[in-house]
Every structure is written in structure tokens, then in C-alpha cells.
Amino acid sequence: MPDLDTLLKDTLLLTAAPGATYQSFEGGGGAQAQAAAGPSAGSVWSWTHNLGTPGRVRNVTHRVRETPWFPAQTLTVLDELVWSPIEITYKGTALKLELTREFLLRRYETPGGSVAKRTTFWIPTDLDRSLMLVFGFQVNLRAPAGTLALEPIPKDVLCSDGFMPVKKPTAPPKPPVMKVKRTETGTLSLSPLRVLVCAEFVCCKERNDYTPHGLAATSRFRPHLMFMSNRPLERMAARIHVRRPPMSSMAHPSPPPTPPPSGDIPPTTPTDPGHGHHHGVHAQALPGDRPEDQDEMLHEMATGMWSDANDGLLSWKNLFNPNIPPLWHKMFSRFRTNLRAGTGYLMASPQIAEGPGFNVDVFDRDHYQRWQEPLKERQGYFDNIHVAPPMRAPRSIREFFKNASQDMRLDNIAMAPFCIHDCLHMHWRWLPTGNDETHLWGWDHEKPYAVAGVPHIPAHQHLRVEVDAPHAFTYAVQADSCLEAGRWQYVMHEGMAFGNSAANESLAQLMHAGIPLLQGFPTVAYKSWAMFYWTLRYQCSITSLHPRERLLEDGAHDLTCLIDTHQAGHE
Questions:
Q1: Distance between CA 157 and CA 191 in Å, rounded?
Q2: What one-character DSSP code corresponds to residue 270?
Q3: pLDDT per position as a tens digit, 188-219
């Protein structure tokens, strides 16, 4: 039966960096010197972690390289990520596993590592500076009668073969035959409920495997949980809180803020780098650009959610084809932008069957046509979330249309299906892809990357995503089956990604330059990323000046089957 070191080999960090050093807290007390690694000089990721609050990672930044659209710079990806207490139920008793210093066993850190070949649970990746925390909990059998308390797992238990059971043994072991004389005495050893928890914050270097056909260059990071118990559980629930800065820290050449009357200049912070509450140009000017022709960005973060069209793979294949732009009604089946705090949806559930789903309204010439989008097994309301600052059309274009009879909706433009700047992007499901992209497939009942088009979370879990603020959300899962002893439970196995650029920047420049749907618009529109995103969402001719949503926003009220499932799965 496995001991602690054997079990930890299953984690992503020790798969990629098996020789990673760690600080040991086993047996209580302070850390025993094990030469914990520090950040390497070449790291593109940075973060801070305090042992006093081990369930939090703060000040997460990423150094993005120079692209044709903005200079190299370091951006704040997250203000904070928090692993909330894991809730479990064992024999009718609810327990809460607090990820505190008291239960911390080890802290691993590595400056790098590599998964060269795909394993059952991990796809190839190159690690940047990464962290793993190991916690151990067991029921205290010495607690007063009628009380239930948790204590750290003792050090001698961690290295024993009986620490955790073997998952699904081929045959139950035969009980030993004991021959005891009446005059003999012995000691009965009781094994309490134990739970091992691994919280990984694994940061990866840039790759092009996050989207279909490898069209986007992103850096993944995977702040997932893995936990295992030595007894079967009846229920589990876990929540991960993700908070970006309320304002983008992306550099732009706006003027500095006006000092207050006292003459005291307020200090700057990573989330408000001396710019204050304002708008600014998106990137450095290109040769010959007038200031009024530059794209702008709204520095306030905004959250949007999208659902991939299950027949949209051809649109992804043609993403960089200037004659077939990735229009939203071709790429998506539903969406919501500028989500408010308190909004939440059921995103995946084992109770959702494959079949008829929600209604989709697509604008066709002069009216909307409705059809029904079929759902894949376990597919919920939306598939992905973007947290990013929206764009704004260049001032010259806004001035050109200032007298239009209809609102042209040029002041707040969401970026999708990919983002050109400062975007936290998370997919818990991708549309069905081919056999050459199984790394985008979802889970079956045993493992990831197994079934095309289904969610990227274990098949027995319910997932709900809740918006806490325009710049923050909570990822919440629960399960009441498949919680047997000796089985790893994964929470947010799919991780997230921070967008850097297009994988092929030359094609991306060609794609949005001279897009035919902007015929008749001012010339500057042909090289504007803001207007590129605008025309993917809206249909509008230069003669009518009446923008229409190509795909009507949010059909959540049409999906009664998911409303019922949500009530059944989360009451």
C-alpha cells in the first residue's frame, strides 16, 4: 500500500520536477531545512506565498513578450487566489478541512520542470516557477467522548505502507488467522479517517495547445486541488476563489495623474500603476498613426461567458482566414458579457443528458431565426469565462458615428473568441475536436482527455461558477458519488490560461486587416482590433447604421432542463 512519497508522484509538480526540494513541517513545529527553491532569473511568472496563510497565493504576475500590438511588459494576472476549506461528509458527519499552517506537511517549490510525454492525467508542458502545498488531516481518536476533532497526520503514519489503501484492489485481502492464548495480551490498533490534500499552483511557459488548431499563444497556470481519503466519503464540496485586479495594469502612454492639491502624490500599486480611473490607448502607435486613430481600452476589468457551438470546429480552423472571419454566431451558441456580481450558473453536471438543449437566435438578413442547440453529455450553461478589460473604438470612428440615430455600441467592446490583450481565459469544456486534439477532450468516469466535447471536470462532479465582482469569480464543485477510498479527487484539473498573442502573428495581422464586413467604414477601421471584435459580434451596414447582434445574448431562460438540474444538484 502506498506511503506519502509514493502518492505525491501522481501530482503535476512532481511529474514534471521529480527532484523538487521541499520544506518539511511533518510532526509539527517549524520547517526543517530542505533547501526550498527560490525563483529563477529567467522566470516569466511571479507570485507571493506566506506560510502564515498557506491557502492563498497573491500578487501573481506574468511577463509578456513583445508583440506587434504592445511592448513587452509585466502584467498583474491575479491579485489573489484562495483555496477555501474542503467540505466532506463521512458516515453522516460533516467535516471541514481548513488549509492552515497547523495541517501543513510539506511545501514544494521548483523553478522549472517538464512533462515531455503525455501521461494519463497530464499533457506535455514546461514549468516555470511553481508551488505545491501538502496538507494532512485525521480524526483525533483521543478527543473527548461526543466530540469530533481533526489533527495533523503523524509523521510515522506518513511513511507507513498503510497510510492510504490501494485503489480498487484486485481481491480483498484475507483476514489473518490469529491464535491467542487466554493468558496473552495485545494492542488493538485503530486507523482513523485520514485525508491527504495537495494544493498545486503550477505555472507553465507559453505553448499553443490551449485552443483548437493551436491558434493562440497562451501561458497556462493550474491552481488545482487533489485530495484522497482512506475511507469512502458520502459527499465532498470545494471552492476556489479567483480575483483579478479591478483595473488592468497594462502599460499605455496616457498622461500621469494630476497630483492632489496638497502636493502629496499617492503611492502606486500593482493594480493601479499610477493611472487612476480612466481610459487609455490600447498599444503603442504604429508608424503614421494619428492619436485619434488608435484603439483604446477600458482599464476596468469585465467578465463574460461563452458557450462553444458544438459544430463550430470549421470556424476555428478558418480563424485566421480574412475572407471567413470568426463571427460569433458561427463560433458560439450563447454568451453573456459584462456580468454583474451575484450571477452564477451550473456549468456541468452528471445529471445532464446528451440531447436537445437551449434555443439559439441568429440574425439572418432582416430578422432572427431560432433553432435548438443540442447539448453534449453533462454540458451546462456556458463553457468558458474571460476576465479582461474591454476595448473601445478609436476616437475618430466614434466621432464619425456621433450623429447616428442608433447607439453604435462602440464604447465597450468585448474580445472573443480570443483576446488580444490582458485576458484571463478559462475553459471547462471545449467543442468536440478530432482525434489529433484529444488534449482538448473531457473526462470520462476515470480520467481526462477521454471524450470529445464533454466537460473537463471529473464525470461525477457538479460545477457551478459564480461571479463575485466584474474582476472576480468562484469555481465551486460538489460530488456525492465515486468518492471511494484511495482515489484522487481533482478540483479544477483543467486550469486556466493567460493570453499572450496569436500563435501566428503574421496571419493574425492579415486576418483583421481589411476585413470585408467593414466595407464603407472609415479606413482606420480596417486596422483596428476594436472594430474587428465589434464586427464579429454585430451585423451593421454603413447605410443603415443599425447594429444587430449576430447572436442574441443569453438564452438561459430557455433551458428549463438545466434549471431543474441545478435545483436538484445544489439544494
A1: 10
A2: T
A3: 456 889 999 999 999 999 998 888 887 778 89
- Measure the CA–CA gap between 283 and 33, rounded to whole angstroms: 47
CA–CA separation, 221 and 203 (whole Å): 4
Nine cell digits for residue 527 = 486596422
Cα–Cα distance for residue pair 361/372, rounded to 1 Å: 9
- Mean per-residue pLDDT for 494-503? 82
Backbone dihedral region for residue 368 (phi beyond 0: left; psi -120 to 50: alpha; all else: beta): beta
Cα distances from 191 to residues 1, 139, 161, 230, 276, in angstroms, run 14, 9, 13, 9, 58
Residue 222 — φ and ψ, nearest 5°? -130, 95
**What average pLDDT does this structure show over 280-297?**
68
**Cα distances (Å, whole numbers) of residue 189 to 162, 171, 357, 452, 570:** 12, 23, 54, 47, 39
Q: What is the pTM of this model?
A: 0.87
Q: With both helix axes pointing from N to C terminus, report the angle between 529-537 and 505-512 in degrees, rounded to the nearest 10.
A: 70
* Chain centre to alpha carbon of residue 176: 49
Q: Which grid coordinates are listed for 33? A: 531545512
Using CB atoms within 10 Å of the CB of residue 555, give its burial: 0 to 12 exposed, 13 to 18 middle, 19+ buried: buried
